[in-house]
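This part of the workshop introduces the protein records we will be handling. As an example, a complete record with its sequence and its structure tokens follows.
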Amino acid sequence: MAPPNDEKAAAEEINAASVPGRSISKILIVIALEAEALPLVERFQLSREHDSVFPVGVPWVRYHGDYKDLKINIVCPGKDSKLGVDSVGTVAAALLTYASIQAIKPDIIINAGTAGGFKAKDASIGDVFLVSDVAFHDRRIPIPVFDLYGVGLRRAFSTPNLAKDLNLKVGKLSTGDSLDMIPQDEAAILANDATLKDMEGAAIIYVADLFEVPVIFMKAVTDIVDGDKPTAEEFLQNLATVAAALDQAVTQVIDFINGKSYGEL
């Protein structure tokens, strides 16, 4: 990880999206669950890193390798050292994204993962969405201007050609640190006009924006938030099947990006 006094230089080095004609060569894919990442690791024939670019002691995992004309890096937050479960949520996602930007200096970030979807917004199990906007739904700060900071609305990197070519659904994403949805969260999600609900996206784009690294979000629907089934039960039931759909969609996105510049996306 770059020392603090090197961060400005690192940001300048990786800020390339402002140059539309520049080709993309180094991709960082941030994935919360290793179960979601492993099909892509196998497809792109990536190797697990042993001499980590990350600080000693963190559980973060990196897979890397070359695919066509691209350098692919897949990072996961890894297992919690005490409980042994995947380190999901905004804190782990933000830390991992920050460290990965500093160490890898990607041209672009793809946050790929599963999400809850709303049938009222035409989401169905297995749908893969390209995200247009991202916001938080559980940072309630009822003070003028701080309330906007809490929502943290940001636009994902615009990829109209990619969306058209791959015929992907497009929707807004709302992020919070709970799998369930209390009434206050539901009201905020409705205010965010969200089609999708996850636990990492808004944290990832917050960090990426600090260094002006463009982010694309690929979210596959595992559960219907406004449906009849319990969220946790439906998520676990559909995870394997939906992860396969996500794997296929992300591969198509990588193939589309290969050989292209920012302006061609």
The longest strand covers residues 108-117. Residues 48 and 63 are 4 Å apart (CA to CA).
